[in-house]
Amino acid sequence: MKEKQAMIEGILFSMGTSVSRKQMKAALEVDDELLDYLIDQLKREYERSDRGIRLLELNDAYQLCTKPEYYEALIRIVNHPKKPKLTDVMLETLSIIAYKQPVTKQEIEAIRGVKCDHPVNKLLEYNLICEAGRLDAVGRPILFKTTEEFLRYFGVSSVKELPVIQEDMINGFKEEAQEEVKYALEEEEAEKMEEK
């Protein structure tokens, strides 16, 4: 057992990126049950306070990474920028993608009521979203989905762990959006009247 755990650790350390469950099973020549046991044991080992790394599970894949409490020390060595700062507009766009994926830019814009070129481009740049193919429709628009980096950023193993949005909350958001649009139109109309 210890040898298999060491193999998992060596593979994940060497790869530096996530390794799929299927790849791990093939490399170790183990079944699902034994892999689950080995991964669970390693996770427990890394959860100890005297360990600087942790084992992440990301959509049926595994990766070793630094514990968040040691990011600052790591940054001082590698001079790597901190997590990207997400604006409200970017968070709103990202949440639409996370809950509706795969989704086109046109669908995002229909929900938000405004253009979303900039936030989508920034989210792509930050690797929080990626292209997920094209919709089989006129113009073949690009579909977007979240990435493993999104899961790491928000500390979840899968999008299934995202909070469930209740129907009354959705209705509240719609009402707020409608009020904002109404207010913006009233202000625009008032400005036009002043110009005359």
TrEMBL record:
It is found in: Cytoplasm. One of its GO terms (cellular component) is cytoplasm. SUPFAM superfamilies: Winged helix' DNA-binding domain. GO terms for biological process: cell division; chromosome separation; DNA replication. Keywords: Cell cycle, Cell division, Chromosome partition, Cytoplasm. Gene3D superfamilies: Winged helix-like DNA-binding domain superfamily/Winged helix DNA-binding domain. Its main location: cytoplasm. It holds the Pfam family SMC_ScpB. Participates in chromosomal partition during cell division. May act via the formation of a condensin-like complex containing Smc and ScpA that pull DNA away from mid-cell into both cell halves. HAMAP family: ScpB. Belongs to the ScpB family. Homodimer. Homodimerization may be required to stabilize the binding of ScpA to the Smc head domains. Component of a cohesin-like complex composed of ScpA, ScpB and the Smc homodimer, in which ScpA and ScpB bind to the head domain of Smc. The presence of the three proteins is required for the association of the complex with DNA. This is Segregation and condensation protein B. It comes from Candidatus Anaerostipes avistercoris.
